[in-house]
């Protein structure tokens, strides 16, 4: 595509060089630049892309989109075109959308945002619409898919160029729908700028990512911005069991539909029966058996059901398909031992998510068995949630083992000590701290008796542990099976 077509409509502060040149690819990482590319210099949270402009030019970049031209670059010595704009982060998404032919004008893109439930809802919609005979794409924390083609995911929401490239490939493959997790970081960093969403789903909002957003109010504003920017042709499916469910839609131009387990709403659900391997739920007066457990999952399924209806699907057919779907990897996944012990692996890594998962286990187990929880907290992330996570875990467990999650660049013992600060002397008597996660899981399996349930929380689908910048193979499910002899 010609450079002039890529930058058409952008507010520029300076243009130097030829804009009629052809550009064959976009990059924000100078290490990926090759001959004929446009390099976009972004000021990231870790480094400033402007520092890498000389490297990008050396690698063959024909044009640079930037906020300023570094002093060390002598314009007379090269034929590179420079396009200066006020803020590269804000316009990268629009540039990428333009370059890749506006893919979201050619398929229906549905975004899912909220603290918990994004992966489950997006993945179940992907599976449901494929079962209904549609070609579908998925952008999620666990993995990206174009139909059955699996593309590894590195972020909940990719950078704008990767995102548009994937969406463009979905269009080329004939996809009619794409379901996408939309993180608060992605909204705040304009990664979804330029995309045309056919619909948005709000799950819930609890404390998370305060290491980045600093306050809950900033976190809420980031989420709300997604709904504020939806067009009048789009729809929103929002959870009014969450106090922020209606706040999110205050300023949206989109058509709003609500879902709830407690209040009058467009899509109403109620759990009739609950077991460790599934529930019977009343969806708008129709009883349906599903292979999911817990109120939080009932809420997720209501969002899936409501979204399918908003996309024009028949209610009866939607519920039939819903009854065949199974939990997403690392989301309330159960493993049974020959001795009658049940282990549950879940990605819960916020105080609210831990409370939800354990509350669901309590409802089913009752007084028939004990609950042993193994949990840690991620390093170099919001420290304030650590004692709160421990409090929620011990309140709903008979025994608690605090261990490592992904310590990253922090000392695991420091993270564990932060969690222990949330516990009283009495609670500490039922708590163990075991730094080695493998040993913590093994200990929980040794302590458990027939009828007991072990929750291993925090990592879910992840198959690694990140320590001092290195990812080591570690899979909670593998470790549980070894310890249980399954």
Describe the structure.
The protein is of the alpha/beta class and 486 residues long. It folds into three domains: 3-97, MurE/MurF, N-terminal domain (Udp-n-acetylmuramoylalanyl-d-glutamate--2,6- Diaminopimelate Ligase, Chain: A, domain 1, 3-Layer(aba) Sandwich), CATH 3.40.1390.10; 100-322, Mur-like, catalytic domain (UDP-N-acetylmuramoyl-L-alanine:D-glutamate ligase, 3-Layer(aba) Sandwich); 333-484, Mur ligase, C-terminal domain (Protein-Tyrosine Phosphatase, Chain A, Alpha-Beta Complex). The chain has 16 helices and 24 strands. The protein has helices spanning 3-6, 53-58, 88-99, 118-131, 160-172, 184-188, 210-213, 216-228, 295-310, 315-322, 351-365, 385-395, 412-420, 425-428, 437-447, 476-484, and strands at residues 14-16, 25-27, 37-40, 63-66, 81-84, 108-113, 136-139, 143-146, 149-152, 177-181, 197-202, 235-239, 255-260, 267-275, 278-283, 286-290, 333-336, 342-346, 371-375, 399-402, 431-433, 453-457, 464-467, 470-473. It has an eleven-stranded mixed β-sheet, with helices on both faces. The chain has a six-stranded mixed β-sheet with strand order 17-18-22-19-20-21, with helices on both faces. The protein has a five-stranded mixed β-sheet with strand order 1-5-4-3-2. A hairpin with a 2-residue loop joins strand 14 (267-275) and strand 15 (278-283). The longest helix is centred in the middle third of the chain and has 16 residues, at 295-310. The chain starts with a helix and ends with a helix. The mean pLDDT is 93.
């Amino acid at each position: 595509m010609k450079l002039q077509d890529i930058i058409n409509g952008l507010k520029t502060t300076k243009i130097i060089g030829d804009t009629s040149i052809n550009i064959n690819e976009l990059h924000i990482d100078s290490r990926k630049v090759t001959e004929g590319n446009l390099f976009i210099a972004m000021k990231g949270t870790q480094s400033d892309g402007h520092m890498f402009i000389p490297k990008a030019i050396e690698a063959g970049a024909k044009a640079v989109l930037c906020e300023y031209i570094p002093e060390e670059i002598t314009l007379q010595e090269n034929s590179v075109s420079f396009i200066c704009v006020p803020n590269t982060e804000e316009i990268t998404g629009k540039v990428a959308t333009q370059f890749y032919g506006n893919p979201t004008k050619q398929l229906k893109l549905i975004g899912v945002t909220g603290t918990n439930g994004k992966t489950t809802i997006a993945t179940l919609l992907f599976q449901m619409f494929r079962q209904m005979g549609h070609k579908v794409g998925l952008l999620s924390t666990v993995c990206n898919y174009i139909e059955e083609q699996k593309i590894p995911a590195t972020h909940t929401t990719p950078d704008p160029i990767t995102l548009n490239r994937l969406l463009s490939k979905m269009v080329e493959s004939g996809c009619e729908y794409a379901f996408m997790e939309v993180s608060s970081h992605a909204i705040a960093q304009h990664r979804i700028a330029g995309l045309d969403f056919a619909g948005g789903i709000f799950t819930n909002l609890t404390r998370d990512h305060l290491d980045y957003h600093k306050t809950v109010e900033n976190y809420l504003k980031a989420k709300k911005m997604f709904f504020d920017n939806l067009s009048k042709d789009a729809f929103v499916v929002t959870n009014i069991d969450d106090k922020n469910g209606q706040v999110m839609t205050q300023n949206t131009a989109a058509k709003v539909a609500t879902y709830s387990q407690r209040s009058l709403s467009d899509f109403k659900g109620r759990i009739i029966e609950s077991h460790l391997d599934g529930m019977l739920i009343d969806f708008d007066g129709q009883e349906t058996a599903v292979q999911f457990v817990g109120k939080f999952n009932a809420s997720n399924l209501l969002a899936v059901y409501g979204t399918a209806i908003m996309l024009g699907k028949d209610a009866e057919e939607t519920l039939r398909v819903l009854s065949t779907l199974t939990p997403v990897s690392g989301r309330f996944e159960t493993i049974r031992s020959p001795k009658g012990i049940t282990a549950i692996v879940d990605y819960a890594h916020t105080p609210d998510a831990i409370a939800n998962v354990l509350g669901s286990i309590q409802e089913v187990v009752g007084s028939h068995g004990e609950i042993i929880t193994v949990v840690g907290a991620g390093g170099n992330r919001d420290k304030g949630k650590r004692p709160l996570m421990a409090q929620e875990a011990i309140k709903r467990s008979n025994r608690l083992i605090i261990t490592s999650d992904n310590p990253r660049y922090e000392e695991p013992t420091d993270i564990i000590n932060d969690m222990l600060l949330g516990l009283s002397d009495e609670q500490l008597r039922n708590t163990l701290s075991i730094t080695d996660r493998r040993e913590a899981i093994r200990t929980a399996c040794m302590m458990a008796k027939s009828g007991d349930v072990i929750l291993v929380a925090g990592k879910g689908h992840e198959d690694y542990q990140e320590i001092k910048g290195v990812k080591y193979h570690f899979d909670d499910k593998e470790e549980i099976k070894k310890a249980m002899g399954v």
